[in-house]
Design a protein that fits this description.
With 145 residues, the protein is mainly alpha-helical. It contains 6 helices and 2 strands.
Amino acid sequence: GNMTDLLKMIHSMKSLYDHLCIDVMQEYCLTRSELDILLFLHNNPEFDSAKDIVEKRGLIKSQASMGIEKLMQKGYLKTVQDQKDKRRYHLYLLTSSQPIIEAGLKAQKRFNDILFQGVSEDELKCWKNVLKQMSYNIMNGKDEI
């Protein structure tokens, strides 16, 4: 059925993305969480806390904390305490993370290129609208559970 096909495709997409990330992880001796954190911070400058990474990127809290800790030790990330809320820390990418981010963005672009090969602009627009509607439905559907 439709649902099985969709779940299979999501699984294949994940495998493809994992496969494309492995090279970057090996080259820079990073775990997947560490790479995800760096790319998330780069791609979403408006979100810069551990809480954001957990909520928006869907990383498990312990993975996020450990990843952040390791990235700080490796000199890719620094944290700055929030002036108003002392419990909140802002995460900043350091210049040394730049080559990793560039490699990661290349992997993400490669993923997109593979995924949308042979898909026209119109089809892409349509797909984005469908996704938006599905996201909206999911957010509102949670109330019904």
